[in-house]
Write a structure and sequence with these properties.
The chain has 92 residues and is mainly α. It has one domain (13-68, 81-91). Helix content is 62%, strand content 0%. It has helices at residues 13-26, 30-56, 60-67, 84-91. Helix 1 (13-26) packs across helix 2 (30-56). The mean pLDDT is 88.
Length: 92
Amino acid sequence: MSELSTYPLRLPHSIRASVAHMAKEDGISINQFVSIAVAEKLAMMQAQTYLAERSARADLNAFDQLMMRPGGEPARAGDEMPTPRKAAARRK
């Protein structure tokens, strides 16, 4: 971490007690527990944004063509290609 800053945080007593209990179980301070929780939440939100942006750029027709190309190994049981009707419905 480069710089640290302080932020007064008000928590309901029940949440504070749960945080204290979990932090103690993990052998870390409450501050470290809260910092990790915030970092995990930020990472999850950033991943959702990234995946939404990637999904918006997807070319499902090109994907379908790639998946239908000859060669390769046959699909394992349960991994078969959907019927064309299902693939078309997925693109809508």
